Amino acid sequence: MMDTDTTPPPHEPLGVSALEDWLDGVLDAVLSIRRSTAAAAAALAGLGREEQDYARHWIDVIAKTNPELAFHFATHVSEALKRMRPEDSEAWIIEVMDAYDKLGLYPAVAILTDIGSFATARDGQARAATLETVAPMLELFVQGLAGRKLSLAPAEQVYTDTGTLFLPPRLTVLATREANRMLYKIMATHLWAQVRFGTFRGGPDALRAEWGRYEDPERAARLFYALETIRLDACLARELPGLYRDLCTLRRDPPPAWQEACGRLSRPGASVDDTQRAMAALYADEIPAPQLYQGTLHLDAVAQAMAERMQRERVALKNALGQMAREHPLEGGRERRFSVHTEPGGQGPVQLMLDGQPLGAPPEVQALMQSVLLDLGEIPDEYLVAAGDGSYAPPHAKRADDVWQGTYHEEGAFLYNEWDHSREHYRKDWCVLRELDVHPVHDGFVADTLRKYAGLSARLRKTFEALRGENAIQRRQKNGDDIDFDALVDALTDLKHGRELNDRLFLRSRRTARNIAVMFMVDMSGSTKGWINDAERESLLLLGEALEILGDRYAIYGFSGTTRKRCELYRIKEFGEPYGDLVRARISGIRPQDYTRMGVAIRHLCGLLHAVDARTKLLITLSDGKPDDYDGYRGQYGIEDTRQALLEAKRDGIHAFCITIDHDARDYLPHMYGPANYALIDDVRQLPLKISDIYRHLTS
Q: Which CATH superfamily is domain 516-699 in?
């Protein structure tokens, strides 16, 4: 340790000699003839006294854990304190110690020696802005802008599909967190401007066709976006001058050769057609680097979103006009004619006309017309033909896109949120679900199953008869099986105060009706085809026969679907519906369908279960695999949404249990259901034998 006689006053830095003596004492266990503390002491001598004391404190602490690690720390701590803020150096030390605890000496030393990477990463964290933190403010801001309501979503690239603004989950481009938050705002506004000022008007195919006229279509696309950015900047300068001033701090000036084109594109009334005309003159010129806020174009995403929205809005507008026509009838039943008046360029308000006279349109109709105008630049005549009595809808076809074709507000459609674990946020009204009936099949399946399992069915009936009714304790009885100590204490208290002794001092046990409601959720995805489907149907038949003995309230629903736009539940037996030939025929009619989107099915079925008045509520899922759908609902995303739906059920007092035949279930079911809330059946042929036994254990 250091000689106290040579120690300077508390505020003066220690010299090289004093520091070397102190380090030799602390690190003696790892020093040798080839290792010296001289370099570390010289580096520490260049620090102020407060920093020296800070470094010595941590060297001493780390030496008690591992002297070798402390030696490396002493060698590098001076550089770290010069390059990092105090809070960053503490984080550096914690990460070093954490690495040592979890991974050992060498990974910890690697962090010590690579100070530059750690300092850069910490600097990025200090200035980082995240979409999660700015989204609430940004969504309100975007919704306040004129035009179509837009949502936000995270993505690695900056783009819009004309319905959603996709932004990076994290920004560290600029020097401060506040500056990066402003960059988020400018990026979002620029994407909004693409929608508002007609970048995609005429459709993505028209843009591709224009770029295809050039020798290098990819170069033409980059040139188009660079010129279109100039036009949109000018639009923002007129519409949002305050934000435009912030944009100008990030904006690079275009090349001098572009000045004439910039002047034309900046005029009021300039459109995407002007951008395309400017391309011809500048195609041979060098294209400048993209602006910091510029993003990219995803025409495939735009095409899909526009097609779905245009079909949906055409149907919705025709229905709305039909209702308005019925509210303004003409004598003689003569047909009424709708038309619209719009401002040049299609950017002003839309005036709806009825037989040539102005007609006030409700806000939702005005929003519909404005949205159509943003996509097409006009409202085509076929959009203005009012639908007849009843809602207009295209013929039913089993395609995911049909959900959006005017059915968003149809009777029977339910909208549910879905949990996005990467954003740690719900996607609002993301899934569309409908209840359908299973078509009953009157074949030999029921009779064959009951004959095949006649012995098992008889044993199940006996077992379930023993469960019928459950013990209930009646307190303060005149006679019974045991003493009611609460009643006894009250009686002795009364006696002590001179009151008459109560003779109701016993507990009595009696049988009472079971108070249970159970929802069976049956996987009807395509992967259940074959033996699995047969085993599911056999199990449900046997269980139904046995449950009639118990008298428990139960319902059976199948689930499947294709994408978030067509989630389907199949009614097999509802609560309160008697178990009889019709339910048996529906069980016989269970057939494999499409995919396995579990979260939305759990949320809907828990809602049905929640409406039942019962003390014990169970949701039992019968499935052959993990959540899966081809639109990205798979892997961690599907597992986390299902887990979140199960947590919601638990908060509502519903106990969930899963019976599965998936051999990989141990990899994900404990995370979704909890380690004690699932059962794995190795052989599908054992399913009918096991499911009733599992039910008995869960409800007894």
A: von Willebrand factor, type A domain (3.40.50.410)
